[in-house]
Amino acid sequence: MEQEQSSAGKEAVYVIPWKPVDHWVGILLLALVDLSLLAVITQGLGIRLAQNAGLILIQLAYLIPLIVIFAYRRVHPKALGFGGFEWSALGIGCGLLSASYIVILLHNAVLMLLGVDTQGIRVLELFSQLDSPVWFMVVGVIFAPIIEELFFRGFLFQGFRQQYGWVRGALLSSFIFGAAHLDPAAFLPTAILGFLFAYLYHRTHSVWVPILLHVLVNALGLCAAYAAAQMPGIIPV
Question: Which residue has the higher pLDDT, 127 or 83?
């Protein structure tokens, strides 16, 4: 990714080594992967897959859009933004994350008042059905954050930012991020986090910052859900 200045000298122009059409091709390929996974889950294989190493292969399938597009365009993976960053950016991210969770908690409280299960409730139910949560935790805490940030921030947000500017690019990529999780109850919280991750990518020009914060979010959420599943009635959900 290259950053140039416009003739006015005020607005940054971002140059990426792939075409605007590639974003929609990537989204289409991602949708096909999502639908394939949904078909597997509806066949009753979800619990079995969630507790063995095959879950890693399923998560890696989400790299297919990037592999196809980057191979066709001959793009080096470094274009996704593997540069360094100042550690103070993580502090800023944690502060913004805390503010985001106020909105997310209010959203979840409204859903619970309406009798709608939140994403946390469904994860809690999943943990109660697993014989071993090891692979589910490994994928959720490590593989999912890395793969999702590479696609949604390193690839999709970068492209949309070039076309529409960073704010509209962040909004559009975060809405698609929320929809890709195939959970209407989790759409808004996921989209809010997606916007935050996009902002941090924009601010730091490094995909490592949203990856690390995504790891933190998933680790805290999954550990809390697992603890609640192990101690029902003691830890409130």
Answer: 83
**162 conformational bin, left if phi > 0, alpha if psi -120 to 50, beta if neither:** alpha
Give the tens place of pLDDT for each residue, 12-68.
667 899 999 999 999 999 999 988 888 777 776 667 777 777 788 888 999 999 999
Quote the tokens at residue 76.
């080096």
Ordered alpha helix ranges (H), 114-157:
119-129, 134-138, 144-149
Q: Which residue stretches of 79-118 are H helix? A: 88-113
**pTM of the full predicted structure?**
0.90
Q: H or E stretch including 13?
A: strand 12-15
Q: Which of 92, 44, 124 is nearest to 197 (CA)?
A: 92
Tokens coding 69? 């597009």
What are the residues whose beta carbons fall under 8 Å from the beta carbon of 199, sequence distance 6 or more? Answer: 96, 166, 170
pLDDT of residue 7: 39
Sort 53 into a burial class: Cβ within 10 Å, 0-12 / 13-18 / 19+: exposed
